[in-house]
């Protein structure tokens, strides 16, 4: 490819990036280390189905496109007339430029990140350990038969691995930690895992950071779903309410509790002093009702006492009234 063709292709890539940087306020930065071309193509198709676009290029080209969009345009730039159509520069994009390290790609989308994250990180491939590669996890070789013939026992002894000969093959006596997370894989470790036909690593595309209208979100924040955020907000509001009530500080979080406590005090005074409150009109009825929500009065059991035998009324003594003085 001639130099002029390379330059023209580079300019086209910059213009394409400039256009996407102008149209999207959310950009996902993904790690492409140890990710195969087939994985990239599969994820690109899945992202496209969700109204997104995965762009991969050299970091120098991406940084140049970001610098053009973030800063004032040079009027002498050959593409000045094209770039000025996108309006004023966006200096917030300088934060995105800091994320252009190692082998990364950019996903331009307005779809919520928590929806795309499972799609992006689900396509993973089991891979053998390579010499010099950084181990993404601890690797332990389990105890048991290795399938290696006894002539190779010196190799295991060189790695300080306890072995024994069992049924014509080498058998590892106890579990052995071969690789440590974050440490490079050595030649001996890679050879041992290859001999045992162990592919310990799972590689796939991972979210490094998310640019959201000038803010850079870490992978831990991106992993939160809306329900997780709501729960965290509830816990924070509860803590603020408790602290505010303890300090006697009046704010939006403490006012509902202050009003509720004040009403409880009024209700207590009302019940003690027989002062009637409209809100407590049915309190007496509710208090008289039996527990369990049954409003019907529970029957009271009383022992039936034998009725006393009725006595005959005693005769009243007859009196002789003098009627003469009434009409005289």
Approximate strand percentage? 15-25%
When the domains are counted, the total is 3
Termini separation: 156 Å
Strand line-up across the major sheet: 2-3-1-11-12
**Radius of gyration computed on alpha carbons:** 42 Å
Question: What is the count of β-strands?
Answer: 12
For CATH, the homologous superfamily of the largest domain is named as: Ribosomal protein L10, N-terminal RNA-binding domain
Essential attributes:
three-stranded antiparallel beta sheet; alpha+beta; disordered C terminus; 3 domains; 16% strand; Molybdopterin biosynthesis moea protein, domain 2; 328 residues; Alpha-Beta Plaits; five-stranded antiparallel beta sheet
Structure description:
The chain is of the alpha+beta class and 328 residues long. The chain folds into three domains: 3-123 and 205-222, Ribosomal protein L10, N-terminal RNA-binding domain (Alpha-Beta Plaits), CATH 3.30.70; 139-201, Alpha-Beta Complex (Molybdopterin biosynthesis moea protein, domain 2); 226-286, no CATH class. It has 13 helices and twelve strands. It has a five-stranded antiparallel sheet, sandwiched between helices. A three-stranded antiparallel sheet has the order 6-8-7. Helix 1 (3-23) crosses helix 3 (59-70). The longest helix is centred in the C-terminal third of the chain and has 22 residues, at 226-247. The N and C termini lie far apart (156 Å). Mean pLDDT is 82; it is low at 317-328.
